[in-house]
């Protein structure tokens, strides 16, 4: 009995190894085409845009960043007593349907090496785009990202995160440029 089990295990192992063997032929163009159709490049790659230019998603949702101003957060802010850049984000809903902003988020990176930056939460600044923006309407909020005075480059990533199907959320917009 043990010999039979051992023999069957050996045959199965050899079969698996043979099936996993390397193929000397390069992949056919047909298989590459099918693979790219299954995972479109646009879904994986963030979209790029200038920091001060409106970004428009394919469905008509638009985000515009304006009013960049360097400040220092208060001692009661999170994080407190930190140099940061404050800016306004205005979204315009051109999708033709109401958009829920509950999961709207931003992320920032600063400097030429793209250091991750904390979002600033202070009086009148941070996490202000919430609720619903109706079709054809706008919503505006002030945001801030920690940014040392020595850094000039700011990258803001905007993830609107709306929709009924979590697998088809709008892609993240990446806006970058220099701040005075």
In terms of quaternary structure, the protein is: single chain
Spatial strand order of the main sheet: 1-11-10-6-7
Sheet-strand content, in percent, reads 35-45%
End-to-end Cα distance? 80 Å
Helix content: 10-25%
What is the rounded Rg?
25 Å
**Major sheet attributes:** 5 strands, mixed
User: What is the name of the CATH architecture?
Assistant: Sandwich
Mean pLDDT: 79
CATH fold topology: Immunoglobulin-like
Q: What structural class do helix, strand and pairing data support?
A: alpha+beta
Domain count? 1
- How many DSSP E strands? 11
State the name of the first-level CATH class.
Mainly Beta
What is the overall silhouette?
A: globular
Q: Give the helix tally.
A: 3
Task: Record the SSE blueprint.
Blueprint: H1 2-19, H2 29-38, H3 41-44, E1 47-50, E2 55-56, E3 61-72, E4 83-93, E5 99-100, E6 105-110, E7 115-117, E8 132-133, E9 138-146, E10 153-159, E11 173-178
Describe, in plain words, how this protein is organized in 3D.
This is DUF4352 domain-containing protein. This protein has 180 residues and is of the alpha+beta class. The chain has one domain (47-178): Immunoglobulin-like (Sandwich), CATH 2.60.40.1240. It has helices at 2-19, 29-38, 41-44, and strands at residues 47-50, 55-56, 61-72, 83-93, 99-100, 105-110, 115-117, 132-133, 138-146, 153-159, 173-178. Strands 1-11-10-6-7 form a 5-stranded mixed beta sheet, with no helix packed on it. A 4-stranded antiparallel beta sheet has the order 2-3-4-9, with no helix packed on it. The radius of gyration is 25 Å and the shape is globular. It starts with a helix and ends with a strand.
């Amino acid at each position: 009995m043990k010999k039979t089990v051992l023999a069957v295990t050996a045959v199965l192992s050899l079969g698996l190894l043979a099936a996993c063997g390397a193929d000397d032929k390069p992949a056919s163009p047909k298989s590459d085409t099918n693979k790219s159709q299954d995972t479109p490049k646009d879904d994986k790659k963030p979209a790029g845009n200038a920091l001060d230019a409106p970004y428009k998603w394919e469905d008509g949702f638009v985000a515009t960043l304006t009013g960049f101003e360097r400040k220092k957060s208060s001692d009661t802010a999170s994080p407190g007593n930190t140099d940061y850049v404050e800016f306004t984000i205005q979204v315009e809903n051109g999708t033709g349907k109401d958009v829920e902003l509950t999961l709207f988020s931003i992320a920032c990176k600063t400097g030429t090496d793209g250091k991750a930056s904390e979002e600033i939460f202070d009086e009148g600044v941070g996490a202000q785009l919430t609720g619903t923006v109706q079709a054809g309407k706008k919503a505006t909020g002030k945001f801030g990202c920690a940014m040392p005075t020595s850094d000039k480059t700011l990258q803001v990533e905007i993830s609107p995160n709306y929709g009924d199907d979590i697998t088809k959320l709008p892609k993240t917009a990446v806006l970058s440029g220099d701040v005075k």
